[in-house]
Design a protein that fits this description.
Number of strands: 0
Distance between the termini: 47 Å
Structural class: mainly alpha
Helix content: over 70%
Oligomer: single chain
Number of helices: 10
Shape: globular
């Protein structure tokens, strides 16, 4: 499937739609306690839209992660309440954005560029490892934001939110501290999930931080051994 420019435009349009949707919900202020959460999620989609249009090398990976987040949320919602039209729309549009951005042909305007690979001295294996990490962060970041900025946040969730945002910035600049920040965010998310399990038992309340924490740990795990080797060699 080619049509690279058209697929890029459609994926960006979907991200723009959800940016505006969440922003309008936040501005409406019907439920004031949810305004920070809605505004933050609008920012997640807004970053995906802007990065796709700007052509940042990490944009496709990040937007694919956000698309998979929407598919997961829609799937959980359908499992809970059934195939409601709104949930089907959310699932189909996010899946479409993910499919539009998938594939080798779509990498050319983004991670397929040679300039950034030469700048960071990245071979194909390193590029794939970074791509998987950014996708996992794209999946987990909106989940952490939604959980941390919900009306009943805890200290661990808020700290995970700050670390995840900072860690994403460090990761796309290939900084070691970014990987460590994401790992710490994952550990704190799992801690929050453990707290929910202890307080409420096994249920859906603990699922979001558990999924986000597992995704962040999976994103950072491939980097831990190289970091350890580098530190011990010094």
């Amino acid at each position: 499937m080619k049509l690279v420019g058209e697929r890029r435009a459609l994926a960006a349009a979907i991200m723009a739609f959800y940016t505006l949707l969440y922003a309008l919900v936040a501005l409406a202020g019907v439920q004031p306690e949810l305004v920070p959460m809605m505004a933050a999620i609008a920012g997640v989609y807004g970053l995906a839209f802007f990065a796709l249009v700007a052509g940042y090398f990490w944009a496709r990976w990040y937007a694919v992660g956000v698309g998979l987040y929407g598919v997961i949320i829609a799937g959980v919602g359908i499992w809970q309440v059934g195939a409601e039209p709104v949930l089907l729309f959310v699932g189909v549009t996010h899946l479409a954005a993910t499919v539009f951005l998938w594939g080798h042909a779509m990498s050319a305007p983004y991670d397929g560029q040679t300039a950034w690979r030469e700048r960071f001295h990245m071979d194909e294996s390193a590029v794939q490892r970074l791509g998987r990490a950014v996708i996992r962060v794209g999946v987990s970041l909106p989940i952490i934001l939604a959980y941390a900025l919900a009306p009943r946040p805890g200290g661990a969730a808020l700290a995970a939110f700050v670390l995840a945002v900072a860690g994403l910035g460090g990761l796309i600049r290939l900084r070691t501290w970014g990987v460590l920040a994401l790992g710490a965010a994952g550990a704190l998310s799992l801690t929050a999930a453990g707290g929910e399990l202890a307080a409420h038992g096994l249920g859906l309340v603990a699922l979001p931080p558990a999924v986000a924490g597992a995704a962040l740990i999976a994103a950072t795990a491939p980097y831990l051994a190289p970091i350890a080797r580098y530190l011990t060699a010094r």
